[in-house]
Amino acid sequence: MHFLPPGHDLIASFVSALLNISGVLIVFLTLFAAMSVLERKILGRMQNRYGPNRVGPFGLLQPVADGIKMLIKEDIVPARADKVVHFLAPIIIAAVAMLTLGIIPYGRNMTPLSIDGGILFFFAIGSTTELAVFMAGWGSNNKFSMLGAMRAIAQMVSYELPLIITTLPVVMIVGSLSPDQIVAAQSKYWFVFTPWGLAAFLLFFTSGLVESNRTPFDVPEGESEIVAGHMTEYSGFKYATFFLAEYFGMFAISGLAVTLFLGGWHAPLSILRFVPSYIWFFGKLSILLFVFVWARGTLPRTRVDQVMNFAWKFMLPMAFTCVVSAAVWHYAGRGFFAWIWSLVIIAGVYMTLSILLDTKKKFAPRVYRFAE
Amino acid sequence: MINIAFFIIAALTLGSALAAATNPKLMHAALSFAIAFVGVSTLFFWLGAEFVGLVQIFVYIGAVAVLIVFTILLTRREGEQLRGFNWSGVVVALAVFAGLVWSILKSPSMSILPPEVSPLTVKRIGEVLMSDYVWPLMGVGVLLTVALLGALILAMEDKRE
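Structure tokens for the assembled complex are given below, as produced in the milestone run.
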């Protein structure tokens, strides 16, 4: 640092911040472009059609064409819309999604923003999305937008609870909120290989699907009911920004799932340590992203009341069970018997819940309260 | 440098709080209020209280601001017209401000140098919550449970048949 002029601390921190930010942005914007074309390709394969195959070899240049199209499209703002709020909503959503990417350890010593309360930072910043979605819905001054925003916020608030509570067992066992230490604690075994870890991972991933408004939980933008939800009145590049934010949110949630349960950047076997750590991280991340696409290609959309009932009657009790099970696992010595006890607790609660929630009316028509 | 940061944060917080108090459009006022919350949390970050700053964002923007916004949305839209300027409000605000300034200036903490505190880690917060402050924590837990049950009873479907 001796070649820098006086006051170089400031310059050094500024340059380092800039390097971190540009690294994250370049990697994830590329991943976004790749993901958008690969998702359509995989969906095409699942639905027995080709998918995009006109632009470039195998349609791989499709994102470039999409980007140009979105950029030169006319940006339509409704006359009665609240101009400022309507303009700010996509910016806030995208900024929030990018910020949450900052705390994830992408490899050995590769955390862009290494703070003590990293996990808390993720959820604190992530909770701002609700306000931004509301701004999009309200600012558009359109009833479909408003209904979509209400649905989105209802399901995000409901599923934020299991999402946060399923991270608690990991935080409890590691004793830290810092993602780096959580990854370091998984050098011997990944948390997904414990009963509480597996249950918490599945619950976390399901809640992540809801939080990023992906099929089968994309009720807020159900085309057949409310056009495109809170994005109805957005066109051109603002719509693309929403799209970008959705994908970035998906990357962030998958990245956090990898960090919390799948061992972060650790190699699965110690013999494979010669492969760089970031390759393991992005390998695990791509598997989770493939599951996102897979779920979209195979599952039908759930109904609003089903989504909410599932959150409060099943996800939340199971999330609390994970916390108890992890505590039992810890106090029983983390050995083989601890493993069995932990499994017994989770299986017991799961069976009880499935008996209690079985309403015996499997394919009954929905009963409407206010409409006929 | 530090003073510049403080003045930027203070200007942002006070400006958005003022906008929240004076904006005739209720929804804009609520959103400015959210910006004021961001300003306060930035102040916590600037003071090195990272945990408090994050909780401030989490609770006040993720929950309180959304609650305010929903309350405005779900109640009637008659608050849009301008009402007359209320001088009694100014008097109350000035009295509260004067009281706060007086008590801060009178308190001994202004003259005592702050002791060297180790950075507040999450682990220490957890330990203190589970030892010294376990009863307040339990009290808050019971209160929140009661509030949750109350909300459930309000929202429960009444079966009349």
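The mean pLDDT of chain A is 84. The longest helix of chain A spans residues 8-46. Further analysis is deferred to the final report.
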